[in-house]
Amino acid sequence: MFFKNYKVWETELAGRKLTLETGKMCGLAGASIMARYGDTNVLCNVTMSAKPREGVDFFPLSVDYEEKMYSVGRIPGSFQRREARPSEKAILTSRCIDRPIRPLFPKDMRNDVSVVATVMSVDPDCSPEITAMIGVSAAIAISDIPWDGPISGVNVGLVDGQIVINPTLEQRAHNDLNLTVASTGDLVAMIEAGGNEIDDDTMFNAIMAGHEENKKIVAFINGIVEEVGKPKKSFQSSDPDPAILQEIEDFCIEDVKKALDTDDKNVRLRPIYDAVHEKFDDRFEGEEGKIEEILYLVQKHVVRAWLKDEHKRVDGRGIDDIRPLNAEIDLLARAHGSGMFTRGQTQVLSVTTLGPMNDAQQLDGLDEQTEKRYMHHYNFPSYSVGETKPSRGPGRREIGHGALAEKALLPVLPSVDEFPYAIRVVSEVLSSNGSTSQGSICGSTLSLMAAGVPIKAPVAGISCGLITGDDGVYGDFMTMIDIQGLEDFYGDMDFKVAGTKKGITAIQMDLKVHGLTPEIIKEAFAKTHKARNYILDEIMLPVISEPRKQLSPYAPKMLTLQIDPDKIGDVIGKGGKVIQEIQNTYDVKINIEEDGRVFISGIDMDKCNGAVEVVKLIAT
Fold first, then answer.
1. Is the pLDDT reported for residue 262 higher than 80?
2. Bigger pLDDT: 267 or 399?
3. Which of these, 390, 318, 403, 535, lies nearest to 94 by C-alpha position?
C-alpha cells in the first residue's frame, strides 16, 4: 500500500457512522485527521511552533473553521467567485471549538498552536461543526502537542418534547432546542445553547444526555491515541521563578489589597506597578514584561483568596448580590426604538431599526438558511474601557456577543405574518466592567418593546462566576452572581444565561478550568434564574411593562395582502415597469413573495393604503 501509515477507525454516533482516519493526507502537519460523519467530511490539522513566541503573556492558540462552498456543490456568490473572509457562522464555530480545547493546554506554554478545520463535504443530517470539533480533538490528541484532552462534542435537540442527540435536518425543522455540549471524559467543558424558553430541569437533562454521549467518543479517541499517539513534546515554561514571585508578592501584596479594595483600582494600581518596576527591573533586564505577569498573579491570588476564603468581593457586594441597576428607554428621538441598561460600571445602549422584508440579510453558507430577518450587532469601542485603540470593525469577540444576544431574543420575536418587518438591533457598549453581552440583551429587550415590536415575553441575561480550590471542581467551590471584570479575569467561569421568566433562551459558558460537574451546573442555573427574574420584575418591567401598540412616527408602516401567485407577473409588469410606477407614485416599497404575499411599506399610511388598492385592482 502506498500510504503505509494510513489508519481508519469507525464507531457510531447517534445512529450514524463516524470515521476518523490519518496517515494519507497532510504529512507535514503536526497531526492530521480526516473526520467523516455520514457524508460530511472535515479535514482537521494541528501544528505547533518549535519555539515559544517572544514577548507575549498569553497562550497563542488560533482556531480556524473554514467553509468551502464546493462542500455543498455551489460556486461562491462573491464577485471573485471564491471564498474570502469567514462567514459569521464560521467565526462562531471557530469560537465554539476554541472554548473547550483552550483550557486543556498548559497555561505556561507560549508556543504558537494552529488549528484548522476545513469543511470538504456536507451531509445536511450530519453537522460539520460537530464533525470538526471531534476531528480537531482527535488530531491534537494524537499529536506531540502537550494537551490534557481529548474532548468530544454533540448537538442536543428537543423534538416533540424528546431529547435527541444530533438531530437530523427533518428533526431540526420542529426543534425547540439547539444545544452544543462538549465534554472531557468526566466533565462538561463547554455549553452553547439557544432554546424556546426551556425550563432549567429540561436544559440540565439535555446537557447531561449530551455529556453521556460524549464520554463514548472520548473513549473512542483515547483508543486511537493508544495506537498511534506521539509522545508529547517538552516546552519552555513561562512561569516565573517561584522565589522571585514570592519576593515581589511580599513586597507589594498589602498595597495591592488596598488598591483592589477601592473603586478607582486602575488609578491606585499604577503607582504599585511603578514601584515594583523600579525595585526589580534590574533582575529582568530585557524581560521587564515578566514583572507584569507576576503582578497579574499577585492580583489573581488576592481576588481568589477574598472570594473563596472570605466570601468578599472586590466591590463589597455579597456573593449573591447584583450590582446597582438602571433601565431607560427613548433616549434617541429619531431612532425607531432605544433602551439603555446600566449594571454598575457596565452600560449598554441598544437601538432598534425596522425595515421592509427586503432589508433581511442574505446568507450564502453551507446550511439551509438563506436569509436572516433579525440581525443583532454588538460594538465594543475602546473608550468603553478607557483605552485609545482605533476602531477596526468587529472582531471575533464582538461577533460572538452579538450572536449570543441574537440567539437570546430570537425565540420571543413575532413571526413574519404577525409583524412583517426586518429588524436590526445595535448594542453600543458605552462602559464596560464585565457582562456587557448580558447587558446588551437587557437593553435590547427594552429597545424592542419601545419600538413597538410585539415580543412574546421580555428577556434578561445574567452571568455566574466560579472559584475553585486546590482540588479543582472536585473539591470545594463557590459560585457568585453578576461577575464584574476582575472576577471574570481572575475567576474560573463565566456562565451566561439569558431567558424569560418562563425559561432559558440562550446559554454561553466560558471556562478556564477543564470542565464542570453536574452540581456546579445546577447551582449556576438556580442562581441565574433567580437573578433573571429580579432584573425583569424590579428593573425592566417598571420602565416598560409591555411592547408599545404604536410604532415610532419615523418607522416605516407595513401592510400585507395576499394575491393569486398567477397574478404576480401582472403586478410587476414587463421589466418591472408596473411595480416601479406604483412605488414612485405612492412613495412606498413593495416586496412580493413567490406564494403571493405582498408587503407594502412606507412612512405615510395613507399612501401605503393607496398602493394596496392599486395592487388589489391589478390582481383581481
1. no
2. 399
3. 403
Determine the distance from the C-alpha atom of residue 258 to the mean position of all C-alpha atoms in its chain, rounded to a whole number: 35
Listed in order, strand segments (DSSP E) in 207-333 are: 325-329
In 110-203 the beta strands, taken as DSSP E runs, fall at 111-121, 152-159, 162-165, 177-183, 188-198
User: Quick one: which H or E segment has residue 265?
Assistant: helix 265-280
Predicted TM-score (pTM) of this structure: 0.93
The answer to whether 304 touches 467, Cβ cutoff 8 Å, is yes
Gap between the Cα atoms of 19 and 41, Å rounded: 9
The answer on pLDDT for 284 being more than 90 is no
Query: What integer best gives the mean pLDDT of the chain?
Result: 94
121: how many CB neighbours lie within 10 A of its CB? Answer: 19
Q: Is 25 in a helix, a strand, or coil?
A: coil
Which cell goes with 12?
457510531
Residue 265 phi/psi, 5° resolution? -60, -45
235/109 Cα distance (integer angstroms):
7
Q: Which helix (H) or strand (E) holds 454?
A: none
Distance CA 132, CA 117 (A): 6
Where do we find the cell 514570592?
246
pLDDT one-digit tens code per residue, 53-99: 988 889 999 999 999 999 999 998 878 889 989 999 999 999 999 99
d(CA 135, CA 21): 9
Amino acid letter, 566 = D
Q: Which three cell numbers stand for residue 594?
A: 413567490
Please tell me the distance from the alpha carbon of residue 505 to that of residue 178, in angstroms, as a whole number: 10
pLDDT tens digits along 528-576:
999 999 999 999 999 999 999 999 999 999 999 999 999 999 999 999 9
The letter for the amino acid at 579 is: I
Using one digit for the tens of pLDDT, what is the confidence trace for 427-474? 999 999 989 999 999 999 999 999 999 999 999 999 999 999 877 777
In this structure, the number of other CB atoms found within 10 A of the CB of residue 178 comes to: 18
pLDDT at residue number 57: 87
Contact 351, 330 (CB under 8 A): no
User: What does the alpha-carbon distance between residue 492 and residue 514 come to, in Å, rounded to a whole number?
Assistant: 10
Q: What φ, ψ does residue 465 adopt, rounded to 5°? A: -105, 175
Q: Per-residue pLDDT for 286 more than 70? A: no
Measured in whole angstroms, the distance separating CA 569 from the mean position of its chain's CA atoms is 43
* Separation of alpha carbons 325 and 439, rounded Å: 10
Contact between 180 and 100 under an 8 Å Cβ cutoff? The reply is no
The CB density around residue 415, as the number of other CB atoms within 10 Å, is 8
What is the dihedral sign for C-alpha 187, 307, 256, 343? Answer: positive
Separation of alpha carbons 344 and 401, rounded Å: 19
> CA neighbours within 13 Å on the CB side: how many for 116?
14
Cis link prior to 150 (omega < 30° from 0)? yes
Residue range 590-602, pLDDT digits in tens: 989 889 999 999 9
Question: DSSP alpha helices (H): ranges in 199-241?
Answer: 200-228
Bridge partners (DSSP) of residue 429 are 348
Length of the chain as a residue count = 620
How far is Cα 387 from Cα 382, in angstroms, rounded to an integer? 5
- Could you give the CA distance from residue 252 to residue 229 in angstroms, rounded to a whole number? 45
Strands of the sheet with 374-379, listed across from one edge: 325-329, 337-343, 346-355, 422-431, 374-379
